Amino acid sequence: MTARRFEKRRIARTDLEVTTLGLGGASLAGIFSAVPAEQARATVAHALDQGLDYVDTAPQYGLGRSEHLVGDVVRSASPRPIISTKVGRLLKPVDPAVQDKGNWVDPLPFDQVYDYSYDGIMRSHADSLQRLGLERVDILYVHDIGVATHGVEANKPLWEQLASGGYRALRELRDSGVVKAIGLGVNEWEVCMDAFALGDWDVFLLAGRYTLLEQTALAPFMTTCIERKASVVVGGPFNSGILVGGDTFNYAKAPDDIVQRVRAIEAVCKAFNVPLPAAALQFPLTHPAVCNVLPGPRSPQELDGILDWWDTKIPDALWSTLADEGLLAPGTPIPGGTA
User: Which letter, b or e, does each residue of 69-95 get, where b requires 16 or more Cβ atoms within 10 Å of its Cβ?
Assistant: First the structure.
């Protein structure tokens, strides 16, 4: 099988280059509905065969399941793709009968414990290497620090853990060459802005906040990333389903105003004979801070659909029409200028 050729973009401040399309590993672990292990492995293998060279995973995904499945495939891959995983959650064995499974179907028998301390970061990194069966990963993201996950009061001591020791651990891992890049993997841009006060970061994995539907991260976050030489990986490019024909936005039923906005965007896409998901998938890369878009297919067939959207030619006039109709935030980069 001949691999596709993807544009590569460098993660600022590092020598890492990633294909502009990557593979997210959350769905493979069976969120909301089951994904058989062989199907998950086949999806990772198909992504690599097609030329994608960046795979993201995390201890939280299936409570260890995603890291095991990803590792099963990438251990024998040649060349090996760039791998990112996350720190901030430690997994502790638990009786499945009393396990808090969250939204995971058939997770591994562990509960998660938040720990953003120096020792917690180091332990999380080492544990992930064992689950992956790899001697290294390339990128470490601090996972779900911030009020969106923890609430205002509960986040305070966790943030203090990161500020007083966790960030130092990440710097040591990067500066010693154990990992090549560090960042945050979150659903809110505000905590990324807070993180700049701790020091420099290489890359942020931001889910859902810079999409065709929502550009709330545009300023000040994205502009600050350019100033501070940090790159952005855009996760959740379909806003959890609403941009691929679903009815969920941010993992809940979409409110009427969001539904109406999606219909307006889709009408513009139809006028140019462009599928809405194709525009959603390609939109983030119009911003110079973005190095990668990270969808999460559950099967090789879903990945093939994503690749078809990726190959869709989108005329510049589509973006300018969206801007003219007020469907993109002012200042949003588009080919030839800004909205």
Answer: bbbbbbeeeeeebbbbbbbbbbbeebe
Alpha-carbon span 285 to 282, nearest angstrom: 6
DSSP 292-320: EEE---SSHHHHHHHHHHHH----HHHHH
Q: Which amino acid is at 230?
A: A
Q: Kindly report, residue by residue over 171-202, the tens digit of the pLDDT.
A: 999 999 999 999 999 999 999 999 999 999 99
**Whole-number average pLDDT of the chain:** 97
8-325: CATH number: 3.20.20.100
Looking at the chain, list the stretches that DSSP marks H as alpha helix, in order from N- to C-terminal side: 37-49, 65-74, 118-132, 147-150, 152-161, 167-175, 189-195, 223-227, 256-271, 276-282, 300-311, 316-324
> Alpha-carbon distance 18 to 6, whole Å?
9
Per-residue tokens: 26: 């959350």
How many degrees, rounded to 5, is the angle at CA 140 between CA 217 and CA 103?
70
- The residue extents of the domains of the chain are 8-325
Token pair for residue 104?
Answer: 């995971």
Active site residues: 56, 61, 86
- Label residue 1 by pLDDT band (50, 70, 90): low
